[in-house]
Model the fold of this input.
Amino acid sequence: MGFGERLKEAVERTGTCACVGLDPHLDKFPEELKASWHGLEGTAFRNAAAAAVQRFNREVLTRIAGKVPAVKPQLAFYEELGAAGWAALEETCRLARDLGILVVADAKRGDIQSTAQAYAQAILSDDGPLAADAMTVSPWLGGDTIEPYLPLVQRQGKGLFVLVRTTNPGSALLQHHGQPRAANVAAREVHRLGLPSAEASGLSAVGAVVGAQTSPDEVRALREEMPHAWFLVPGYGAQGGRRDDCFRGRRTDGLGVLVAASRSVLFPPAEGDPWAAVERAVASFARDVAL
Amino acid sequence: MGFGERLKEAVERTGTCACVGLDPHLDKFPEELKASWHGLEGTAFRNAAAAAVQRFNREVLTRIAGKVPAVKPQLAFYEELGAAGWAALEETCRLARDLGILVVADAKRGDIQSTAQAYAQAILSDDGPLAADAMTVSPWLGGDTIEPYLPLVQRQGKGLFVLVRTTNPGSALLQHHGQPRAANVAAREVHRLGLPSAEASGLSAVGAVVGAQTSPDEVRALREEMPHAWFLVPGYGAQGGRRDDCFRGRRTDGLGVLVAASRSVLFPPAEGDPWAAVERAVASFARDVAL
Done:
């Protein structure tokens, strides 16, 4: 089964378009975990913090299994803990897989052919260390730097989300450059690369990142250019996006959008048990973006 | 001392613009190292291969110390070995630092603010796991996603190379899009971001990746737009670039270009001692792109 269909199955099974971002901001961790690295520095700090990250993710994943289709670990937050952070990330991906939650590795990689092959092996391949179900990639170096991932799309049912349109303050500089805008050029490339995988279900394995603050007109144009693509929509919650903003890119069948939230659901303002608070915040998020 | 000046000092001290890419292609390793992971799979394979990578890099680094200003590990080749690969990368960066060789981490990261901060900590910061001297970043998400690295540029003498113009087959799709071309828009952003660090020596800490196959006219225009920037030029050797192609972006003072070669110097056709062959290949490369 291709990734487009696997994600459809997961969204329909859980009844929600919610994707929980696993961005372990250490400074927002529950106090009981913070104590574990108190006073440590260097490698000792990173080892202790990585163990805390692993524990944090285990607590979160076991509580949200069956309730959301996917999680999205942001690789930067693991890499800042070095080798120990990567080990925690490997363990997190393994646990999510065991719990039946799809893993979208937020890596935003973009590099030439032989390097892209190495990233595909690092992040997606079933015999690699992470074996994620999908990953984010950058289009800046062109379609030939995305093609090296396609064998895993075809043979292992893996997926991609190409950075088409983000909505951070400086995003327009290059993404809105030219006529048509560069983001639209990237969108057409996403469509071209994803077409072979869209045949069976009409949902392709090559999706697009489209930020929640993208204007309604622009989202409409991007949807027309990428009729088969899943949109991964960051920006819900802490970044200000509301349900209606995030859902603008949905297709007429109600599918095609996966909404990501991280800080607002991982670190809700809480009194009492922090894990129960995460569980409530995720449940509320999942209801808000129900299918 | 800022990175622009640190790189100038290293280039002048070694008398060459050569940067050795540390891309450990396992299938090209000497037979004595390949034997170490023979028959292994999964984590056992990755652990054994990472140990071989560490050994390989140690052999290379100790032979080239003092002869080239910088090395450029490509992160993908370490990440495909998971946590063990990251440990080998940490060890490689530490050894290069001890040997007085600058480390340019070829990471090509590009992400929004809090994530960029985490990548800065992961890759550049002196109290992080790699503590590289410089790294490559993507401009696709805009200047505000490069700004989070600037505190380390200012406070720790770190450097950046922004992906302005690559010369892989599909690179023109976005980089040549629009009028002016998007690559030139990115170049102006590099200039803007680097200007504060260019004050002392006239060489900025924010450089640009400009592929060896970029046309002479385009290189000239990019140099005009980025008069203070170091150009990191990939594509020498195995990728077909020759000395004259790589040197097109040099400033009138002869500085401003760092030429990267990886496969052609790490894995030269060799009979006899593979390490002596690497040493000869690096020496020949260093002479070819002598200052």
User: Anything to note?
Assistant: The beta strands of chain A are 18-22, 70-73, 102-109, 134-137, 159-165, 206-210, 231-233, 257-261.
